[in-house]
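Quick one, T. Sequence first:
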Amino acid sequence: MTAKPSSSPATVGSLVDHHLLSTVGVAPAAASHADVMHAVAQVARESLSRRWVEGDAHDRKQRARRVYYLSMEFLIGRTLGNALAALDLEAGAAAAAQQHATRLEDLATEEKDAALGNGGLGRLAACFLDSMATVGLPSMGYGIRYEFGMFAQSIQGGRQIEHPDPWVEDGTPWEFPRSALSYPVRFGGWVEQAEGPDAPPAWRHAGEVAAKAYDMVVPGHGTERVSTLRLWKAMAPSQIDLHAFNSGDYARAAEYKNEFENISWVLYPNDSTPAGRELRLRQEYFFTSASIQDILARHLDEHGTLANLADRVAIHLNDTHPAIGVAELMRLLVDEHRMAWGAAWALTGRVFSYTNHTLMPEALETWPVALMQQVLPRHLQIIFRINHDFLADAARRKPGDDGFLRRLSLIDESGERRVRMAHLAVVGSHKVNGVSALHSDLLVQTIFADFALLWPDRFTNMTNGVTPRRWLAQANPGLAALLDQRIGRGWRLRLDELARLRPLATDAAFRTEFLAVKRANKARLAAHIRTSTGIEVDPDSLFDVQVKRIHEYKRQLLNVLHVISRYQAMLAAPDADWVPRTVVFAGKAASSYAMAKNIIRLIHDVGSVVNHDARLRGRLKVAFIPNYGVSVAEVIMPGADLSEQISTAGTEASGTGNMKLAMNGALTIGTDDGANIEIRQQVGDDNIFIFGLKTPEVAALKNGGYQPLRVCEQNPVLKAVLDAIAGGVFSAEEPARYRGLVDSLLWGGDHYLLLADFDSYVQAQARVDALYRDRHAWAAKAIANVAGMGLFSSDRTILEYAREVWNIDPQR
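Structure tokens:
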């Protein structure tokens, strides 16, 4: 192995100046902050390159079994801080920054977030790559190199406005283009029947796009090993129609190029139109096909045969977006490599595993048969055959039970015929997991109950985790330093060492130090709120935080109802001893999700009234922080006092924001849902605020004929809140603005049971107030939350996947 570069400040400083001159192309004395950031990144990139090359050579020599993680999203965020920490270059980089009259923290802000994801799904994938490298798994992630990441969000007049997010328009030092690596991905056309008994059908495609590879290297911590994130960019085989261009028809000249290259333009195109839905399907197939072609090419290069594919390759489907991979692998094995159907199917089932991320039937991905016939005719044919063989086997289990077969079928025949992608993933995988204990239990009791009857051993649980390097060490350096001082640095790699904090919860001196760190983090968050919204908030108030995608089941609206009830109660008793509170929201609504956008507007309208009402004397503030992403989260999480995890029981698969917030010393107020249950078990019932209906009670209430109007009429506080919203108290210029929203609760069924849980939620918030009055009692419980977070490291999750799903041994 080559010698490891020195990390001394003097060496790093000279390397930074070298890269300013030779790579960035600027005199060191004249370098801007952005120039210095790029030069520091190049120093880190050199070390990452060395680790990547050496690790890849080792894995090839060992013919290692690898895991390939396919995900539509990777919410990476900024890379500089994480890379410097993993490479032990922080001190040297800080000194180099100082030589150029700046701070390392200021350099970090020059880097754009790689926002290649929407929310928890994408950030989970990023945490997993970090942990795969850290625990020593030969691994690669595969996704799409979106030209524009998740849209940039601004707020105008309370409304969400979406802007392009061109994260690579100025280039990124973390990307390694692989210009020689390209695979054809085909669409459309028709299928011709086989000409001989052993020949497969021939797919006569109508269009083709080239998938070009770009790599990002994800370093492990405490190890030389790295993981690779390979992203695919769509390139038209023929860039332009030169004849049309020379004839002056410039639009037609670029039409072919744009038709295919738009596949990798934007994360999650608006799928409310037929064109948007077709583009989404093309995206999913594009990256899945390119990835599996790449996997097979690597395997053949190392082994020379596909017969041992399942012994050396594990492909994991992160949700259903890459589920078409089951049919694609079959196509490649049968059509391209002339493997017999039975042998190919046996390999496929051993290679794939699948993580489900939702229990809600409406969120389970399906595609119209007609659309799949148009876009992927050969794959539809393969799915039909898989379904035929599968249902024939299932029929032997329950002869004559047509309902059983209808529920199992990969094709939903109840209306417009649709391909059920989750069913395809289950049938084509050897392991299927949920992401929290409750979620995994409900999977086999509800949406996959019939499959669990056939294959009970196929289903398992893998409770999510987050990387403590990003979400504690990097996001909260003050708390990290305090932990290092009291329990040592080992918690970064062995998060269960946080349990050693438990006795310190009763140590008055430690509580004081802990509160001082929290106060500094709250001041930083207050400054960000002021900069991003113009709202002044009191860092000594209780920071009540709900940050996540805006969605009805996550119930930001329930939070708003409580804010309004609190506002009304404060006006009724202005001289009472109210605990000052700052309620912080952040999150993006999907561009086509009208109700979610309306909730964002209501939050702003309520904030406009509450924040300017002098009678409150600043004791209640509402702030919506725009453009939520990883870097913004790194400011919010350490500054939070209260973590809002209030989804309707049985709807949130796991959550990871709940883990990040608790890890940073926030107390959770939440329902018994997702990983909240396991957090409660780890931190103790006395250190969490649980409220509301439990999952069986939710089902019982709905089955018994839930009447939200009656709940409202029986609760004067709730009725006053809804009357205020519907009556235009928060939208005086348009009094009927939210009448439809209120009607959806009172007359539309209140699908997510906000009104049913309202009273319990308000009572839990009163318990929050009571505890917060005693700051040391609050600190003791916050410390207990940090101490209980050992289970929620993504390192633990990945080691469980390696052992129970992927059958891979760590190779640190």
